Amino acid sequence: MVESTLAGIIPGVVRPRLDLLGERLAAMGEDPRVEATHQVRVAARRLAAVLRTFAAVVGEPPACPIAPFRRIERRLGALRDLDILEQVLARDAGAADDGESRAALHRALEMVEQGRGRATRRALRAVGRPGLRRAQQGLAAWLEAPRFSMLGSLPAAAVVPDLYLPALGEILVHPGWEVSGTPQPDAAGAEALHALRRRLKGLRYRIECLAEWFGAPAERWLDELHRMQDALGAWHDEGVVLEWLLRADAPPVALDRVRARAGLVLDPWEGWRQRYLDPDERRRMRSILQGAARPRGDPAGAAAKEASRPPARAAARERAAPG
User: At residue 214, does pLDDT exceed 70?
Assistant: First the structure.
């Protein structure tokens, strides 16, 4: 049996993600509504994750234009954060049972609304930039005649672990695991935990590129990474709400409500933390990524399916503030 090479796999991983970004940009148009904005942001993030993962294999630098896709991810992220924050503050203001809390929530809401107009203009400029269109066109042209470094001709099983294990290593030694218990989003160590969430999200998107290649254990791991990202994201979101309420001079009772919600969403944290610190579990995670030596299924077909999967975080973000 002829062994697969990354030169044979990468185009089938990149193409559906590039197509999906184009579709979602067209759907967004000139109306950056909350969900449309989020869909574009996720599509750009997934495409950037693929390009970053396989950067060493893609032979020509212009074929790997990550920067324009990361730019729209950041710009649209800022807009979506404000949209979701606006929703959460409006909800909490309607449910507040004391006048002082309600007034503080309305003050915070007014500040958020003032910033949304600026964020909308920046988001529309980002998606309309010529650089983004050139990057899309350049990547589409590269897909018609892709070129690779010498790594592209090697058996994929000999290369894939080397591309993935460094990202796992950065997570396993991350200082965020030092944070124990159920920390508050404004406590010491909160920033390290938020940084760890971003690392976990990046690893999740990388594994999704070749989920079927890695096999069933990777699918189970992805489910856990989804849950961790949701919980850590919702926890961080409550921290953002807390920051805006502090700016609005909210009373202690309003701040305590937010802290209580943050504690509830991060209740599973200690169990995850212990698992990622367990030596046997750490070896098992490495073995999953080294399992590319036993390829299964069609990784390109799995990539197309994964690229169109609705973002798991969308539902959680609708009930929380920005992250």
Answer: yes
